[in-house]
Every structure is written in structure tokens, then in C-alpha cells.
């Protein structure tokens, strides 16, 4: 079985998905931009889709995930689910 | 008064016993009091006990998929003791039902009459409780030794990144409103609200902003045996320093309760400190596993969600 690729840059995590059906999702934009607490942004050129509250990104060719405070990260082509570093206290509060 | 006991079916219907002023099925329907319910998978020994005291049965009836037997009132205390023993054995043998039933069958063999049986149950209950206490005490000792040893191992490294760790600024709040006000000053609203509830429940609690702050209730006298240990640490060159903090309550010098488990880190790229809480169950795992929990790659018990993955991170 193929290994799932998981990328992390600071608080942002991209988890490779095998069975995400993008055709049923709403396309949001052609660029992923996520602002950190301190105002800096994670940026990635890719197609961004949304399914309920979850965002997925489709990367056709190798793209670079950029952030001013972190080293850049080359992302391999594929479909990825966008998640963030979690916290037990914050998670419980959302429940 | 009469004691009714209803035997259920394994994995279908629970067992129950109660007191009632009537011997008929009206007891089970509405005229019951002091009812005790036993999970069906744990109820089987009651069948053996009833078999032993078959001669004392006053009446029997069927109702709601249970077979009820009616005994004189004194059997109620016997059944309660038996229930306590069952639960204690279940705890002692860590849910191994075979061992629980084997031991309980031996005990039932001594039940010649109700007095002897009751006495035997009390003795057994006492010895089982003692065994549990001994095991708990041993576990506490091992955990305390582990935490103390790991704290010694990591404290020097921790002090280089967090010089204030041994002498944190302590904020004492007098009321929940007072605490909310303070948290709103240092965190955005969503985080402040989440921390507020967590602190009320688990106080004292550490939070991190530009430095570490210990937040405790004003009435928390000398922290009532509260102690923070460092259970594990990892230093990744050019990357991050991470340590696992465990907030505990101690009793007679040993850890008696884990209040919270947190990961405190220093990001060498962004020169920022961060602190994230993980579930208390993660106390059993090392700092790396706790880190995987933060990334959402393992569950609350440290089991991996993906059978095989490649983590690429910066």
C-alpha cells in the first residue's frame, strides 16, 4: 500500500486523501491563503475546494507552500485535506 | 418488604434487584424502590447465587424479558454486597470476565446459608479492595519515579529555552468573571473562552503567551499538592525544542491524579513559544506520540489513524 504524504508547515497540515470526490465539492479559489495569528500568511497555488467545513486542495504539478516565518515546502501533486494543529482544550470547547 | 431479583439475558437485558412491598409482578412494574441494575455481561454469577438459595424463593414471575425471583428482605443486603464484590473483582482483574467468574464461583461454594455467605462476601470484598489499593499504590510509586527521573533528565535543557519554568509568574483569580477578564486581555475571544472553562475545571493550569503564566484560583492554598513534572523532551536542531508537561496532584508524596498533559515548545524558525494541551490519556506516551496527536495523526490512546504515512515538515 502507498504511503500517505502528510505535510506540515507551522500550524498548517496537508493530509493526502485517496477518496476525496472533488466533483461534488464547491470550488472556492485558485490559491490557498491562510492567515496566522501574527498576520503572516501560508500561501499555495492550487485549486481549493470546500466540503462542509473542510477544505481540500488539488495540486497538479509540484507547488511551493510559502510562509515568511517558515522554510518553504515543496508539495507533490495530489489531493490534500487542509487541517491545523489541534489542541485538546480548544477542541473540547468547540464540542 | 421483599427482595425481587430479575435475571436478564446475556448482551440483551440487564439484571436488576430491588425492594418491594408486594411479591407479585407489580413490584417490577411500579412498586419498586432502591433498585440496583447490573450490566448483563456481569450478571451471570447472580444465576449461580440464586441456584444456591433456591429453597428461599418465595415467588417467581416473568416480566419484560427477565425472569424474576422473590426473596425475603435480608437477601437485598446480600445482593448489594455481591454487586460490590463483582465490581471490585472486575476492576482488579482489569475486565477479564473469566477470572472474575472463576473467583466468584469459588466464593459461592462457601455459601451454605445467608449468614455465612454474607460474611464470606464481606471478607472477600475487604481483601479484594486491599489488593486494588496495593496495586494502585504500586502504580503511583512507579509513575512518580518515572516523572521525577524524566524531570531531572530534561530540566537543564528546559531551563535554557524557558528560564522562568521553575518560577512562573502566577496569576490568581478571585472569581470566574475576574478570570475571563484576564484571559481576554491576553488571548482572542475564542481561545479565552475555551481556556476559561478548562481552567475552572482543572486549575491550576499553565498558559503561554510571550512567557509562561500559571493561573490558579485565589483560594488554592499552596496549590494543595499540585506539581508539574516534565515527562519527556526532544530537541531538534534548527527546528524546535519540545517538552511534555504533566500537571499532577500528589498525595503522600506520590502522584495520585493526572490533571492535564501539555506540550510546551519553542519554534526555532519563528522564535515563538507555543503550548498545546493533549488528552490526559497521552500521559502513557512519549513526546513524539503526543506531537502526532496535535497533528491529528493518532487518537486519544496513541493509535495511529493511518497505517502508513510519510510526514514531511518544516
Q: What is the topological layout?
A:
The complex is a heterodimer of chains A (95) and B (314).
Chain A (H helix, E strand, L loop, with lengths): L3 E6 L2 E5 L9 E10 L5 E11 L2 E6 L3 E5 L2 E6 L2 E7 L3 H7 L1
Antiparallel strand pairs in A: 1-2, 2-8, 3-4, 4-5, 5-8, 6-7
Chain B lengths: L1 E6 L7 E6 L5 H4 L2 E7 L5 H9 L6 E5 L2 E7 L2 H18 L4 H12 L5 H48 L7 E5 L2 H11 L2 H14 L2 E4 L3 E6 L8 E11 L3 E12 L2 E14 L4 E7 L8 H8 L14 E5 L1
Parallel strand pairs in B: 6-8
Antiparallel strand pairs in B: 1-2, 1-5, 2-3, 4-5, 7-8, 9-10, 10-11, 11-12
Helix pairs in contact in B: 2-4, 3-5, 6-7
What does this structure look like?
The complex is a heterodimer of chains A (about 100) and B (about 325). Chain A is mainly beta and about 100 residues long. Chain A has one helix spanning about 90-95; strands at about 5-10, 10-15, 25-35, 40-50, 55-60, 65, 70-75, 80-85. Chain A has one domain (about 5-95). Chain A is built from one helix and eight strands, in the order ββββββββα. In chain A, the strands form two sheets. A six-stranded antiparallel sheet of chain A has the order 1-2-8-5-4-3, with no helix packed on it. In chain A, strands 6-7 form a two-stranded antiparallel sheet. Chain A is globular and about 35 Å long. Chain B folds into two domains: about 1-110, no CATH class; about 140-295, no CATH class. Chain B has a five-stranded antiparallel sheet with strand order 3-2-1-5-4. In chain B, helix 6 packs across helix 7 (about 190-200). Chains A and B meet through strand 1, strand 7 and helix 1 of A and helix 7, strand 12 and strand 13 of B. Strand 1 of chain A pairs parallel with strand 13 of chain B, so a sheet runs across the interface.
